[in-house]
Amino acid sequence: MEFPHQKIDISHLDIPTDIILADSLFNETSKIDLIIGVEIFYDLLRDGQIKFGPNQPLLQNTALGWIVSGRVSSQHIQPSIANVAHESIPFIEQQLVRFWEIESCQTKSVLSREESLCEEHFAKTTARDSSGRFVVALPKKEDVISRIGNSKNIASRRFMSLERRLLSNPELKEAYSKFIHEWRDSPTQPLQTYQLTTVTYGTSAAPYLATKCLQKLGEDGSIIYPEAAVIIRNDVYMDDLLSGADSINKGKELCSQLIELANSAGLQFRKWASNSHEILESVPIHLRDERTLFELDSSCASIKTLGLKWDILSDKFLFEIPKHSRNLPLTKRVVLSDIARLFDPLGLVGPVVIQAKLFMQELWKEGKDWDDSLNDNYHLRWINFRNNLSDPAKLEIPRWMMTSFTNESTKYHGFCDASERAYGACIYVRTISSDGSIYVRLLTAKSKVAPIGKTKKDTTVCLPRLELCAALLLSHLYEKVQSCIKMKVKTFFWTDSTIVLHWISGSPSRWKTFVGNRVSEIQRITVNSVWAHVPGIENPADVISRGMSPEQLKEFTIWWNGPPWLSQSPRFWPPLTRQTGDNFPPNELEERCVFLYAQTKPPNEIFSLYSSFTKLTRVIALLQRFIHNDDTTKRPQQKTGMCR
């Protein structure tokens, strides 16, 4: 095979004379000497890129020398047919904008038309056979199926081709048949058509059908297996079930119910693991998982992530550091890929992750292309960030919150804060043991980068508004915790922004739209809870709004255990008092302006007759008496005397 098909004129390309090309005759037709696989290709790339201009090729530095890549404008090159993978850059940029776009007031998820049709289809077509197994029908897009056509001829040709290949290699045929036997034993036998009676793994409908069947199993088993049914409905994530119990006996009973309920549908929960050896012994041996360390990000099992892991022996959460390719040039695309590997669902290392988010926002504001190499400053900063990620690997975070969430001694304390670049929230669990000891543990946290203007004329959101956004973020985080734990726990909310406390204490209709909408949502979620002021230096959410290196975070006690006074009696807490608006500038209060229409009406002319109101009333009284006495029908009731 020869490439390119015809010689290309490169006289218009200003190729520097001080670089070494990997192929100095790249523009002339010649045979391809070597095809390099993609697994090696990226290891060959080096920092350095030279662009010739729009719709022109570029020079890329590699270990073999500089190569020319891209499109050329030539009418002499004949078109060819190829399979192309297309990636929409505008779509990626839209997704990235959402990365730091300001949060809106939370709305309920609404099913699309296709999703609603799938729900209806499952409800109408799903049944259980005599053995208890689920019988489902695949949801289909009829308009797509009608375009597929008859594929039997294609399948038959592929079958014949594979059969000829196996007949020419008896050893391969024997090995293949040991794995799966679907072939006729002789080419003289007729072809048979098989119909698959199970849901095929890998089809787009498979995850949906599996999840829906589990949900239906939870509904069907709610009477006989009440505890297991609740767990199946609420504690299944993707293809993992994560749950727990308050005692060993309850744990054993829960395992027994789950196994029996699954067996009733011909299913098996496998790879059981527990931090209790006694509970694990109640599970059949063939269903147990003997590992001691578990990756909690099952959806990213194929890539290395800054993954949250659970060590069942110590019952602690650990972090695994992702391995980055040292030879891949650093670009905005590579940085985004690195950030996507930071799996921290509970926000335990949120101050570290927010640094990565802020770095990405800086690249966005610079307007760099996705595949432009980073300049020296950005390159060095990101390399340092990568290297510092080794410190979270040394963190050991207790999984147990020292509470069963069932007693009055358990309280939630939520903190929120904002800076000009980001805002965040964190929630702690405070418990008092039977001996009076007080324990405070970080439960979860969340952060967002502050929004930026779409153009240079756009202004960013002011700090008081960001503080309000942080309070709303805390409210939504609390709402999420409540939906997961489902226990009524008294909650205290803390912020170092006095103006936010003043907004929350007022009626939403009093404030302008931006403030009023968020205040309304906060009041709805945190009704009957306490909002109070915490000094900024004692606010643990400050660190998640500004970021912190992994090495510093490891020793930052206030992040892991809250402010010191939280581990003491409430008499040492900051006062739980509301803030008045006397000290706030009017422009910061953002009060809604109320306009009243006033019409001036002149006084009655009678008041212009006399300058004395007393004299005026006497004259009017005399006139009224004259009119009365002049009436012939009222002669018997005539009035006399002096008017006073």
Can you characterise this structure?
- By secondary structure, the protein is an alpha+beta fold.
- It folds into 5 domains: 2-69, no CATH class; 117-140 and 162-290, no CATH class; 294-399, no CATH class; 404-594, Ribonuclease H-like superfamily/Ribonuclease H (Nucleotidyltransferase, domain 5, 2-Layer Sandwich), CATH 3.30.420.10; 596-644, no CATH class.
- 36% of the residues lie in helices and 13% in strands.
- It is built from 21 helices and 18 strands.
- The chain has helices at residues 38-44, 89-100, 113-125, 142-148, 152-167, 170-179, 206-220, 226-234, 248-263, 277-281, 332-340, 350-366, 376-388, 463-485, 498-505, 513-525, 541-546, 550-554, 557-561, 586-589, 613-629, and strands spanning 2-3, 30-31, 45-51, 58-62, 65-69, 127-128, 134-135, 236-237, 240-241, 293-295, 307-311, 316-320, 397-398, 411-418, 422-432, 438-449, 491-495, 530-533.
- The protein has a 5-stranded mixed sheet with strand order 16-15-14-17-18.
- Helix 8 crosses helix 9, helix 11 (332-340) packs antiparallel against helix 12 and helix 14 (463-485) runs parallel beside helix 16 (513-525).
- The longest helix is centred in the last third of the chain and has 23 residues, at 463-485.
- The protein is extended and about 140 Å long.
